Amino acid sequence: MAEDRWAIAVHGGACDIPADLQAPRREGCAAAAKAGAMILASGGSVLDAVKVAVCLLEDDPAFNAGGGSVTNADGEVEMDAGIMDGATLDVGAVACVRSLYNPVEAAHAMLREPPVLLVGAGAEAFARSRGIAEARAGMPLATPGGRGHDTVGCVARDRKGHVAAATSTGGLAGTLAGRVGDAPLPGSGFYAEDGIGAVSLSGDGEAIARTLLAARVMRALETADASAAAEAIFAPMARLAAEAGVILLDREGRVGIAHNSPHFAAAFVREGMEPVSGIVWKENNG
Ligand code: GLY
Hints:
Layout: E1 7-15, H1 19-41, H2 46-59, E2 79-85, E3 91-97, H3 103-109, E4 117-119, H4 120-129, E5 152-157, E6 163-169, E7 190-193, E8 197-203, H5 205-210, H6 213-221, H7 226-230, H8 234-239, E9 244-250, E10 255-259, E11 263-270, E12 279-283
Parallel strand pairs: 3-4
Antiparallel strand pairs: 1-5, 1-11, 2-3, 2-6, 5-6, 7-8, 8-9, 9-10, 11-12
Helix pairs in contact: 1-2, 2-3
């Protein structure tokens, strides 16, 4: 039965991806989706699946997140990440963190804590208290000349119908210090709710936040199929002349992917599918 299948989708950013980064991003998305798929196939939790997949993307310098993050106007890295449990609606998020090697790990550790979002030094102190790794001396946390805006993310569904979503970003290159985009904001850069689905966004963070884009896609998922729900990003982004890309899973694990950016790196695997044939790479469909 379709509803007993696990499914996972990841993205590596909606933007104009330079030619030299296209193959690394496609391969990085495939590897992250496969890692999450192994967790789901062995009965692991959706939260572990999305966390591990996003950690792999954060570890990969081809992506603007974690170790591949761009720098702001002060030449500093400031990263944001959020994760959501669709079963409990628990959210954990961190913003403006500079030294965490995997910001999504800190967000994951916050899931059962009273605060939803910790920022800057407070988030880093919390992460230290939980034994979460900080960047080691000599380990660069920025891509020299890092380009563009993009984000990484993952959505997953287990065989019982539980869903989760996670998003992580190095933000926009050259922005004001302290700027926070959509990635750590539930309802903007991500959302998950059992019985409806899970969604993760990439793109122009201010436009995504101003239009509550994840919430709009979730609303669409209540009545539309996965493909049609993904297309809910087009009108709000056109109104603000902004770019975005979305991955989602509906309540039964069907995938929806849409973007109005020149490129969107994404991969997905659903139980019973050949993992490699689940890699998608789209151009100019918006
Ligand atoms: N979508 C990532 C950001 O704008 O920060």
